């Protein structure tokens, strides 16, 4: 990984640490520090599912904003994600489903814009190719 020459041309890099495991803290040195916990108990803290969902929603929303601008549209897209933790001992998985609502256009146009954003979003690119990941354009949140 470190031998990959693209590291030398990175636009931004960060380091995140977790030295305690699921029931502990994840942190950026001299920056963000989050208490972490399992979603299967009532302990305070953020869990991996929430962090993944926030990362995906933030990246998709930013990418949608760029796509809307390129199509001379005001930014109105909204993104939400649902993450499920499934499996059994020694084989757990996440199911990840994102929905994007683009209220200022009809659904066929929204689907084209969402497809474009899905292919460009860095987090979506990491998840793409997995049978556990899906993205859809929706007319509203009730669907």
TrEMBL record:
<dbReference type="InterPro" id="IPR036102">
    <property type="entry name" value="OsmC/Ohrsf"/>
</dbReference>
<protein>
    <submittedName>
        <fullName>Organic hydroperoxide resistance protein</fullName>
    </submittedName>
</protein>
<comment type="similarity">
    <text>Belongs to the OsmC/Ohr family.</text>
</comment>
<dbReference type="GO" id="GO:0006979">
    <property type="term" value="P:response to oxidative stress"/>
</dbReference>
<dbReference type="InterPro" id="IPR019953">
    <property type="entry name" value="OHR"/>
</dbReference>
<dbReference type="Pfam" id="PF02566">
    <property type="entry name" value="OsmC"/>
</dbReference>
<dbReference type="InterPro" id="IPR015946">
    <property type="entry name" value="KH_dom-like_a/b"/>
</dbReference>
<dbReference type="InterPro" id="IPR003718">
    <property type="entry name" value="OsmC/Ohr_fam"/>
</dbReference>
